Amino acid sequence: MNTEKMDHQKILKSLEASHFTKIINSGNWFENHAVIYAKEIKDTAFLLFVVSESGEKTEDIRALIAQFDDVDNIGKREPERILFYLSIRRKNDLHYFEKFMKVHD
């Protein structure tokens, strides 16, 4: 089983290159200093990557598909509904997420 650590910086650069909107968390739903990368995938459904950082080090990345009534509420309020959630800590986690996204295209 492949349990190598993720290259977090590579993931973040990929999100920025894929035109995700970077949102600073200002609500209570995620911890302070979390950065949210969001992209609308269907009407009111967003693919989110939530990045928890401690100092200069990326601690954790979570992938979610969630519904918000408005894009401006992301990072301020909890979503109306969470459709999918995955904590990405190892390369295998990202592999499973990619498989999920291909099945649900």
How would you describe the overall organization of this protein?
22% of the residues lie in helices and 39% in strands. The longest helix is centred in the C-terminal third of the chain and has 13 residues, at 91-103. A 5-stranded antiparallel sheet has the order 1-2-3-4-5. With 105 residues, the protein is α+β, with helices and mostly antiparallel strands. It has one domain (8-103). The N and C termini lie far apart (27 Å). The chain contains 2 helices and 5 strands.
Order of helices and strands: HEEEEEH
From the N-terminal CA to the C-terminal CA, the straight-line distance is 27 Å
Mean pLDDT across residues:
80
* Largest sheet features: 5 strands, antiparallel
Can you tell me the residue ranges where pLDDT is under 50 for at least 5 consecutive residues?
none
Shape: globular
Strand element count: 5
Briefly note the structural class of the backbone: alpha+beta
Order of strands across the biggest sheet?
1-2-3-4-5
Give helix % range.
10-25%
Quaternary organisation? single chain
Query: In percent terms, what proportion of residues is strand?
Result: 35-45%
Q: Count helical runs.
A: 2
Give the radius of gyration.
13 Å
Number of domains: 1
